[in-house]
Prior knowledge:
Elements: H1 16-24, H2 41-46, H3 48-51, H4 58-64, E1 71-73, E2 86-90, E3 94-98, E4 103-108, E5 117-121, H5 126-136, H6 148-154, E6 163-166, H7 172-178, H8 180-189, H9 191-212, E7 220-224, E8 228-229, E9 232-233, H10 237-257, E10 263-266, H11 275-281, E11 285-287, H12 297-304, E12 309-311, H13 316-321, H14 323-339, E13 342-343, H15 356-370
Parallel strand pairs: 1-6, 6-7, 7-10, 10-11, 11-12, 12-13
Antiparallel strand pairs: 2-3, 3-4, 4-5, 8-9
Helix pairs in contact: 7-8, 8-9, 9-10, 10-11, 14-15
Amino acid sequence: MTVKPIRSKWKSGMTDRERFKNQMHYKEADRCFNMEFGYWKDNYRQWRIFTDNNIKNEREANIFFNFDKIMAVGGNVWLSPIFPSTVVAQTEKTKILMNRDGLLAEVPKDGHETIPHYIKASIVTPDDWEKCKEERLRRDDPARLVDIQALKNRHSDSRDYPLGVYCGSMIGKIRDMLTFEGLAYACYDYPDMVEDMVETSCVLVEDFLDQVLPHFNFDYASGWEDICFKNGPIVSVDFFKNVVMPRYKRISKKLHSAGIDLWYTDCDGDVRPILPYMLEGGINCLFPFEVNGCAHPGELLSEYGNELRIMGGVDKIQLKKGKKAIKEYLETLVPLVKRGGYIPFCDHRCPPDVKESDYLYYLDLKEKMFGM
Length: 372
């Protein structure tokens, strides 16, 4: 489907690639990089602006709102094959299914978006892990080979948009596999197993990077963890420092050798207890930076200076409160955008209880304040 933009692109004197690189390296830019981090699935069913224009996913929404373009290249760096997704049982209002991570999860039958209730993990003991590792985490799996030419056909070095390389997850996907509670127990009951999981994650990412880094001039690296909630990390700080951070350092060394000095990871919640070790490990940008689970982005940018960058940090709670609250909050972000190293957007996917008219007002106001 061809998506027709509903808005004009912000006036530009640079390419999206030039703008992103300059802004995230505290250099002069023509204006702020204009992006958002998507929407809940329910938005595509409930917002008239989406349903009337047949907008069904984030890719289409990004074109529809004419945001600046940003892309990333990923690889097969975890389970291969994934666990088969099958419905195991059903109740009147829910269904229990085996998901791709091998978890039994209870989800609503009507399909509305919510956090699943996880019932049982497939991986509990070291024996479970060894079986899974042998069947689904082989380094020599042909499915892990990257089609370099296909990627080159899609992304040339003369592109006008920033291109990133995905660096996977050192502990977040393990959390997905074991569950929050399962990981908490496993760190104490089977510490060697958990460290081997982290090592396996790292090696698979390293194998992927070895394939792609020689062939592209990437502008940034990305990752995904989601190992924090409003009370801090779900693993101990010592575990993160002694087990996770050394693997970050290995990946960071490869990235820096390839000229990549910007690396963000997607981690919700309060990252402050582990942030020093993220930075020491090489991750120097936070995304999408949930304000209510952590802090106003200005607090950490002030504390860490140019060592840190942030993408996100627009409080979605303020988007729900209406135009006055939106304007007041965006005004607090003006100095951060001016100093560089910060790109504002909704601090996770925008929820459907934000009024469409208020969201459009927010986009208009962002352009007025940050379109320069």
